[in-house]
Each structure stands twice: as C-alpha cells, then as structure tokens.
Amino acid sequence: MSKVGILMGSKSDFDVVKPAVSVLKKFGVETEVRVISAHRTPDEAHEYASTARARGIEVLICAAGKAAHLGGVIAALTTLPVIGLPVKTDMMGGLDSLLSIVQMPSGIPVATVGVNGGENAGLLALQILGVKYPEIEKQLAAYKTAMQDKINADDKALQQLL
Fold it and tell me: What are the phi and psi torsion angles at 83 (to 5°)?
C-alpha cells in the first residue's frame, strides 16, 4: 500500500500534523512521521529526501513555521510531490509561514494548504495517491458524498426551523 512521509520542523508542530496522520490512517495509508529541521539538521533532511522513494514514500507533507523552509528544502532534493503545511506562529499568526512556503522559486514547486491545515494536507496527499490507487479514489469519492449528504441534511433541518 501507499506511504506518506510527514515531516515537521519541531516536535511542537505535532498537534498541527495529527489531523493529517489521522485522515491518512483512516484511509489505510501508512505514514512515516519524523522531526527534521531544514536549519538545525540539514544533513538529515538531505538524507531523508534522497532516500524517501526507496523506502516507498510516494508523497511528502512538510509542516513548519516561521521561515518554514522545510518543504522547499525537501522539494529541492526529490521529485516526489511535496505538500507544505504552514504552522501558526505568534508573530504573524502563520502568515509568515504561509508566505515562506508558497513563494518558492521556479522549478521547485511545493503544493500548499492553509495555516494549520493538517486535515487538508492529508486529504491532498490522498488525492495525489488516488491518481494511482483506484481504491483510495473510491474512498475519497465516498468521503465527499458523505460531506455533501451532511450539508444537505443540515440545510433541510435549518429550512424546517424557518
């Protein structure tokens, strides 16, 4: 089965990463979760990125705050898809992280979700995997149908109250 590598710049980012891990596990996708810093452990970042494919990793999620270079460094070292997950900060509420991740130079793309958007990072990884794995695509279709059904039920309930 498919495997997603999830990196975070610091252990304190784990609460942001947890929803991604949860949604991936819910869909039966294996995760490999590590703390690797682009600035404090650059050799480990290089080793991780250059060996990810050989370990069966097919998509990478990189959570980081402030300068938030982790996703860009990893994307520069691999051809695997990288999803940047900006972490909320005290200074700018995560805008600094978001802009750092989204403003990558030409040739080094990093797909980016919203600040603290762990669930969306996991879902985007699933959509990428769904291109290759029909069983994941089918589960995603059912997931989206269930979301629509809930919204429709909520709307119907609200209309009855009015």
Answer: -110, 120
Structural domains of the chain, ranges and CATH numbers in brackets: 3-133 (3.40.50.1970)
pLDDT for 111-140, tens place per residue?
Answer: 999 999 999 999 999 999 999 999 999 999
- Start-to-end Cα distance in the chain: 48
Q: pTM score > 0.90 for this model?
A: yes
7 DSSP β-pair partners: 34, 62
Give the Cα separation of 89 and 116 in Å (integer): 10
What tokens appear for 142 in the block? 């059912």
Q: What is the pLDDT of residues 58-97, one digit of tens each?
A: 999 999 999 999 999 999 999 999 999 999 999 899 999 9
CA-wise closest residue to 57 among 76, 82, 84: 82
- Angle of helix 14-26 relative to helix 118-130, nearest 10 degrees, comes to 40
Distance CA 131, CA 147 (A): 21
- Tell me how long the chain is: 162
- Residue 34 near residue 7 (C-beta atoms within 8 A): yes
